Amino acid sequence: MSNVTCIELIAFLDAYVDDELDAGTRADFDLHLLVCPSCRAYLASYKETIDLARGAAEREEDLAHDAPPELIEAVLTSKSRRSKS
Amino acid sequence: MLADDGYLIERLRTGDDSAFEELVDHHAAPLLAVTRRILRDEEEARDAVQETFVAAFRGIGAFQSDSRVSTWLHRIAVNCALMKLRIRERRHAHARIAENAQDVDALLPHFQADGHQDHSSVSWSESAEEILQREQSCALVRQCIDQLPESYRVVLVLRDIEQLPAGVVAEQLQITRDNLKVKLHRARQALRTLLDPHMRGAM
């Protein structure tokens, strides 16, 4: 029988995901996950949240067009101003 | 992924100004994406990119040839964006107090007295990879991130999206590493709550 509750598992879920727990605590967490479908779903969606945040940003960068020409112009102008000063 | 541009830095050091144009051309778009994510304000984001290149040009002597140009510029861009964020926060100190009061508590999971989840969590129907194939899903993820209270949003962006080391982020935000860890865990849980209704079914 697992002696870890959902509240404890979720409170330390980041440490579980980042593999920062000692072996005994990790085994207790694994046992709880084995018997608790709700925490299994929570863990999977927690990991997926991290992947989605990073993945959405990467996708948006892939889809982004070139930088606006006026920005490029402004950068080059400010650099040449500094080079002269 | 960008090819590394160390050769441009070498050319710049020898006074070849055309290398600067190439550097800007290669890196302006991805850096603008970074400053937009942090600042969520187009004008400020563009200013931050401009300041990034000026700072990079002035600090070219500090660039170590064994590092990646993209990583070096990324760090400078994050610093420039955070500087603007701090100025904005000082200007809107009252709004920040109101936000802190609101906090993320409402978006965190709730539990019964026996320690079980108040509402059982349900598996999401698709993998992140499948979801991100759709452009509107990426926009929805971004909208959910933007709904996070500001101090949590910034932590999530810097750690999980920009993937900066914890020590660097804690120092930049002037908080302890323990505080950063708590905030990141809460930010992820809050974002999970915001995404949950969309992810249970097809988006």
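Chain A is about 80% helix and 0% strand.
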